[in-house]
Amino acid sequence: MVQIIAGVKGEGKTKRMLDHVHEAVKTANGNIVYLDKSSQNMHELDNKVRLINVSEYPIQNSDQFVGFICGICSQDYDLEEMYLDGFLKIAKLEGKDVAPVLDQLNHISEQFHVNMVLSISMSKDALPETMKAQVI
Fold first, then answer.
1. pTM for the complete prediction?
2. What is the pLDDT of residue 9?
């Protein structure tokens, strides 16, 4: 399942996501991965959560990003939760149509049984209709 935390810049999306991660750590049986554009939130995360600084990898477009996500899923059969903070930025989707990539992530999530939570810097009203049902 893919869930979305939507809101404009400064609305506290990262705080909500970190709260969600802290709750997930309490009940997770598998591994949790947190993808971000920097290592800034490293000290906010429980040591059971693996932080991946996406900016350290040569990802240039959304197709490469989806491949990166598949690589993470393929190397960790115990992966249960994946958090993607600053989704538009790390997926190279700023100013682009998000729907095709979200469709791919929904498929990956179902196929590999990995829950994904994305923070997206846009208001819920600005999201495509197909995405609004996934907002938490």
1. 0.92
2. 87
pLDDT of residue 84: 97
> CA-to-CA distance for 102 and 104, rounded, in angstroms?
5
CA gap 82, 73 in Å, rounded: 9
Q: Which residues constitute the domain of residue 62?
A: 2-117
Q: Which token pair is 136?
A: 């938490």
In 54-128, beta strands by DSSP E:
79-84, 115-120
Kindly tell me the burial class for residue 122, based on how many C-beta atoms sit within 10 Å of its own C-beta (0-12, 13-18, 19 or more): middle
CB 108, CB 114: distance < 8 Å: yes
User: Domain of 10: which CATH number?
Assistant: 3.40.50.300
Average pLDDT over residues 67-93: 95
Task: Count CB-CB contacts under 10 A for residue 48.
Answer: 11
Is 48 a member of any domain? yes
Distance CA 85, CA 105 (A): 14
